[in-house]
Structure formats: C-alpha cells, structure tokens
Amino acid sequence: MTAAAVPSDIKSLGKDAQLGYSEFQFGGFKFRRDEYFAHVAWPKGTRIIEIDRFLRALVRDIGWQFFYGWIFFDDVFGTQNHYGSVDIFAGSYDGGYKAAGTDFMETFPTDKVVTAFDTIARDWISEGYDPLRAPQETGTPLGSKRAPRKDALVRGFTPAKRMLGLPGDVTPRSDETGHPVNRAFADLKFEQPEVHAEKGFEGQLNAINLFDHIARSDVTWNPSVASITGASIFCVTSEEHMLPVIHGNDRNEWFIQLSDEIHWQIQDKNTGNPRGRIVMKAGDVCAMPADIRHQGFAPKRSMLLVAENGTPGLDELYAKGKLPPYPLDF
Ligand code: PHB
Ligand code: FE
Prior knowledge:
Elements (H helix, E strand, L loop, with lengths): L10 E5 L6 E5 L2 E5 L3 E6 L2 E6 H13 L6 E3 L4 E5 L3 E6 L4 H6 L3 E6 H15 L85 H6 L8 E6 L2 E11 L3 E3 L4 E5 L3 E8 L5 E8 L3 E4 L3 E18 L4 H6 L11
Antiparallel strand pairs: 1-2, 2-3, 3-4, 4-5, 6-7, 6-12, 7-8, 8-9, 10-11, 11-17, 12-17, 13-16, 13-17, 14-15, 14-17
Helix pairs in contact: 1-3
The protein binds P-hydroxybenzoic acid and fe (iii) ion (FE).
C-alpha cells in the first residue's frame, strides 16, 4: 500500500472533444467521465462507477467536509477524514484488491481535496441536474456536457440566525419561500405546539413542529444540524432512494427513525464482508458500531435523526482499541 503526503494540486489533462468533459489528475489518481460512467485510475488499477452515483457521493463528500471516518463512493473507492488531512483510497478496504496488491492510497491536506473535488464537480455537472435531490426530483447527469450550473453546487446549509420560530429567525420554512412540503409528506398533519411562557420570558421561549421543518427539505440524504449540546450533535434529514455513499464509522453513531422506514446494509469496515441488515421503522433507535460501514435504502421518503458524538480525538480511541466498537454491553 502506498501512503504518502502529496500536497499537489489538481491538473486538467485536457477536454474530450466530443463530450465536452475534462479529464483530471490529482496526485496519483486520474478522473475521467463519459456519458454514463466515471473512470478512476491509479498506478495499479482502475475502477468504473455509474456517473450518478459518483456525482451524488462527490458533492456530499465536499459538503460534509469528509464527514466522520470513511466515505465509500462504491465498495472500493473513497476518502477517509483525518480532520486536517484526507486519504483518497482505492481498494485499501477491499479484501480482493488488498490480496492482489492493487490497492492505493494517498493523503492530501483537506483544502486541496475540497478544491480538487469541487473542480471535478463543476466540470462534470450540468444545468438541470442536482445530485443532492432525490432521483425522481431532478434531471439527468447522463450524456454530453450541457450548460454549466450557475447556482451553488454544494448549497451551504441555510443557517438559523436564531432558534427556529423566534423573532429574527429567517430560515425558509414556508410554501411562499419555495420550501413546500415534499410530496411524500402531503398526508401529514402538522399541528403547531402551544407555547406558554412565564411572565418575563415572553419572546424567548419557542417550540416548533420538527416534522413540518423536515418535510420541507428539498434535498435528500443530507443531514442538517438541528442542535448541538457540548459534543452531542443532532442532525435531521429526509431520506429517499439510497444513501449515495457507504459510510464507514470511526465512532458510534445513533439513528432514530422518525417516520416510515429505512433498510440498512452493514458490512465489516475493513473487508466489506456482510455483517447484517436492519430494517428501521418509525420510532426505532439503533447504534451503528465504530467498526462497520453502512448504507441506507429508503423505499419511500422518510425522516431520520442522526446523532453524532463530535468529541475531538474520539476516532483515535476507537482506532487504538481503547473503546469497544459498540456503545453498550448487555
Ligand atoms: C450516515 O452515514 O450515517 C448517514 C449519512 C447521511 C444521511 C443519513 C445517515 O442522510
Ligand atoms: Fe453513518
């Protein structure tokens, strides 16, 4: 396995005259796309990935700042976050590539990977296709290059200026601001909570209907922070179709299924061997261990709460075996 710090920048290797897309080199990796597929090459191997899958993973990896641990674009290719640097790997967590010695990994400063991935995304994504939306709610990424997208590819989260609903909150949350309730949640009734503040606390206390908030999300498999208490981070998200990445945990992660259902496929993090399947229904809670990778499938758009422990250095405690990979002993 090659593991070296490669502080190089992304280079264009030229444009496909017919399709209009550029090919890129970043460290030892080369990236090229055609009408249907992304082609990734490294010194000892190549991989072909459906273009939709590749682009949906790419923009999330950038937007999530490489998330916690591993992001697999498919079973073989992906990134690992070291919180300051990022590994890009191919086959490093796949039994077959490891055995054949065709795996490859390079470590880059985080900002270089952001720039590289952003450069590829801007070149390869055309107007009318939004990889953050559910497949039924956006256009196609297939075919030759069309006009480039003009808006933010990785739209920043719209940060709440104040607690939702309090004076000064400008979070878009109504039909008028272009955030209608998603078609999948049209049958829900959103009752608003009653707030009775003690005298002297008027205007400082509020409650919202979180279902109403999540139902208006126009993206999918893209968690937004709902609350942070110390290192405990609650993210809510609206899930339709499949999680476009396979997430390898470097810590425990909790899921609370708020509506409908999600099927999770769980594999060993290092080899990819199957470890289990979970079908989570509304109200179910589960802890994903620190030594697995997982991918979720939502047959119908559903609501999910993801709880993360953002304690710095936690990844190392798990990596060194100082904490067991699961949160509870029964
Ligand atoms: C996860 O990998 O745990 C994950 C990622 C995105 C989501 C939900 C869960 O929307
Ligand atoms: Fe995860």
